[in-house]
Amino acid sequence: MHAYELFQNIKPSIVQDMFQWYRNEDRNLYKTALNSLATNRKLRLAFLQKKPVADQIEWMHKTLQLKTSDMIGEHLLQVYFMKGQESMLVIFCDSMEIPHDGKGQVEGVLPETLDAGKLKTAVDALLEKNDPALVSLYLHTFNIQTPDGWKELGEILKNDERLKLS
Question: What's this model's pTM, rounded to 2 decimal places?
Answer without folding.
Answer: 0.88
